[in-house]
């Protein structure tokens, strides 16, 4: 961890209007939850739904399946991609700094961003929907955190190895996880979303069955895969940064 | 005192050879790396800055290989060609961040001194994105010298600078070179290079075309064969008079269908020829109507040096 790298990274990640863009998605989630809460106050059917599976459905499909991959993509690629594209990464690389330190620092900043703009809003949404800091809220916050770490690490690696990181990341998050994952059951085992849902499922305990939540992989597998993918992606990103070509012009 | 040594260095990208068998020795003082665009200057600087592995040969700093060794940056400062920096921070913060990244004992003091050296103190509080090209260039320079490096590599540092800023940077490079630092800067403009560099290395099409003192390079460049096309009041008489001149090596009288003509001349010594021509024509009573040097791009001038 290097404080100067962290400061430069967070300035470029949160600089200018980017904070506003980052706020859009969590605000949409919270608005939806407040709306559900208000409607529940007016209609007993909706209130029953909310006590049943509506809260986990919302937190799962909007929070973990949509908010977290998109934030991970913005924070993960954004923490290093623009610097590589513009060439300003040279100011970090032309320093007596370990390349792994640079990557780990940037990953920590990205995790900080997904926590602030993803995990915390999901926790707040859980409280709004369920009316308490209960199992559902904590389970989804834990799952969201796991997803946030893995997405950030994966997308940071993508930004180091390719200039098309955002497109590839979007294809992974939207097409592989959502579309292919929904049709081809095997694809779900290779999905950050399912690994983090496994964490949610375990944290919910008996509640999981009642609300109909079932991850494609078991808790142990999910947790191990989240950790292994995050670590390997980070180590490999550091290795690739050691040999990063600044420009291909002759 | 640091020296950068390139020994039989080549670098290729797939089938394209960017740098071809270059051997170079850079010692204290200012060296200019001269060559047209695409000659391999940036590739060479990238290898000297440790960002690119040579495909063959070795690049070393005081005997240590430069590639993939972050520790070399304690001694090497780099001014990249590209302009982009962290533009959402002020010049002061950026130079200070660079000093901190070098883990200097007193980063504030180092940043203050570097900014004073490039005369940016009055604009240091402004965000980098509000700077002009020349100001950005100076802040880039400050980040490169903030840790007082022994070796300074600058890729096209004069690009986009106005004459006053150019002069200022030239003075600064002079001073740093006189202090015993090893400084290399690239440029595609001979006049720029000869004003500051004690030594010039010429690159053409990836090859090390010439090397030496700027007077030597200047002589090579001005004394190469030059082509002139001349129209005069009596082309045939002019042609016969010119071939007698020792500064020429060939004359052709080109007559077109309508009977009009021009004289094409190959001069071996540019300056001797342009001095001899008016004397010769007045001696023979010939009036010059048009003297046109063949259009010579920088590339063709450099190519001559390679073919030599």
Describe the structure.
The complex is a heterodimer of chains A (250) and B (308). Chain A has 250 residues and is mainly alpha-helical. Chain A is built from 11 helices and no strands. In chain A, α1 packs across α6 (99-130). The model of chain A has no long low-confidence stretch (mean pLDDT 90). Chain B is of the alpha/beta class. Chain B folds into 2 domains: 4-221, P-loop containing nucleotide triphosphate hydrolases (Rossmann fold, 3-Layer(aba) Sandwich), CATH 3.40.50; 223-307, Alpha-Beta Plaits, CATH 3.30.70.2190. Chain B has 10 helices and 14 strands. The longest helix of chain B has 16 residues, at 163-178. The model of chain B has no long low-confidence stretch (mean pLDDT 88). The chains are: A mainly alpha (250), B alpha/beta (308). Chain A binds chain B through residues 2-5, 7-8, 11-12, 15-16, 86-88, 90-99, 242-250, and chain B through 13, 16, 18-19, 38, 40, 42-43, 46, 49, 51-53, 68, 70-74, 76-78, 80, 82, 84-86, 88-89, 97-98, 100-103, 143, 206.
Largest interface: A-B, 32 and 37 residues
H/E series of chain B: EEEHEEEHHHEHEHEEHEHEEHEH
Question: What structural category arises from helix and sheet content of chain A?
Answer: mainly alpha
The number of domains of chain B: 2
Q: What is the residue-averaged pLDDT of chain A?
A: 90
Q: Note the beta-strand portion of chain B.
A: 25-35%
Which strand order do you get reading across the main beta sheet of chain B? 6-7-8-3-9-10
Total number of helices of chain B: 10
How many DSSP-defined strands of chain B?
14
CATH class of the largest domain in chain B: Alpha Beta
* Named CATH architecture of the largest domain in chain B: 3-Layer(aba) Sandwich
Shape of chain A: globular
Helix/strand order of chain A, N-terminal first: HHHHHHHHHHH
Distance between the termini of chain B: 34 Å
What structural class results from the helix and strand content of chain B? alpha/beta
- Helix fraction of chain A by DSSP (H/I, runs of at least 4): over 70%
CATH topology of the largest domain in chain B: Rossmann fold
């Amino acid at each position: 961890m290097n404080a100067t790298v962290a400061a430069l990274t967070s300035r470029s990640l949160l600089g200018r209007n980017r904070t506003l863009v980052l706020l859009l998605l969590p605000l949409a989630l919270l608005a939806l939850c407040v709306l559900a809460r208000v409607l529940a106050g007016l209609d007993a059917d909706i209130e029953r739904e909310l006590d049943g599976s509506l809260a986990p459905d919302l937190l799962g499909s909007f929070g973990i399946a949509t908010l977290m991959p998109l934030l991970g993509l913005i924070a993960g690629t954004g923490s290093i991609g623009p610097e590589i594209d513009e060439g300003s990464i040279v100011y970090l690389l032309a320093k007596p700094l370990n390349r792994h330190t640079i990557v780990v620092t940037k990953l920590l900043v990205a995790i900080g961003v997904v926590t602030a703009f993803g995990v915390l809003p999901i926790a707040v949404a859980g409280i709004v929907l369920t009316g308490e800091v209960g199992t559902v809220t904590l389970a989804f916050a834990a799952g969201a955190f796991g997803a946030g770490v893995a997405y950030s690490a994966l997308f940071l690696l993508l930004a180091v190895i390719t200039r098309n990181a955002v497109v590839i990341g979007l294809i992974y998050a939207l097409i592989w996880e959502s579309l292919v994952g929904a049709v081809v059951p095997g694809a779900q085992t290779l999905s950050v979303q399912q690994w983090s849902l496994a964490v949610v499922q375990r944290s919910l305990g008996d509640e999981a069955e009642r609300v109909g939540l079932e991850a494609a992989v078991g808790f142990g597998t999910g947790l191990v895969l989240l950790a292994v993918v995050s670590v390997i992606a980070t180590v490999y990103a550091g290795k690739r940064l050691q040999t990063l070509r600044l420009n291909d012009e002759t | 005192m640091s020296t950068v040594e390139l020994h039989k260095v080549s670098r290729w990208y797939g089938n394209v050879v960017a740098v071809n068998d270059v051997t170079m020795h850079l010692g204290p003082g200012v060296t200019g790396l001269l060559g047209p665009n695409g000659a391999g200057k940036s590739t060479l600087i990238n290898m000297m800055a440790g960002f690119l592995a040579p495909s063959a040969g070795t690049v070393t700093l005081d005997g240590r290989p430069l590639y993939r060794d972050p520790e070399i940056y304690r001694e090497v400062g780099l001014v990249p060609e590209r302009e982009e920096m962290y533009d959402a921070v002020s010049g002061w913060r950026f130079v200070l961040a660079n000093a901190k990244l070098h883990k200097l004992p007193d980063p504030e003091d180092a940043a203050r001194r570097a900014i004073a050296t490039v005369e940016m103190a009055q604009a240091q509080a402004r965000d980098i994105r509000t700077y002009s090209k020349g100001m950005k260039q100076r802040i880039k320079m400050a980040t490169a010298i903030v840790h007082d490096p022994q070796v300074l590599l600058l890729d096209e540092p004069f690009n986009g600078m106005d004459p006053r800023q150019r002069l200022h940077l030239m003075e600064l490079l002079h001073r740093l070179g006189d202090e015993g630092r090893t400084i290399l800067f690239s440029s595609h403009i001979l006049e720029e290079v000869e004003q500051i560099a004690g030594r010039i290395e010429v690159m053409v099409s990836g090859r090390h075309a010439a090397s030496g003192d700027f007077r030597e390079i200047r002589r090579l460049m001005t004394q190469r064969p030059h082509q002139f096309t001349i129209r005069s009041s009596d082309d045939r008489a002019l042609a016969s008079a010119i071939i007698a001149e020792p500064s020429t090596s060939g004359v052709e009288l080109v007559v077109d269908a309508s009977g009009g003509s021009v004289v094409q001349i190959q001069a071996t010594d540019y300056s001797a020829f342009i001095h001899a021509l008016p004397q010769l024509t007045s001696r023979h009573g010939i009036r010059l109507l048009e003297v046109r040097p063949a259009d010579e791009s920088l590339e063709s001038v450099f190519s001559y040096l390679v073919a030599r």
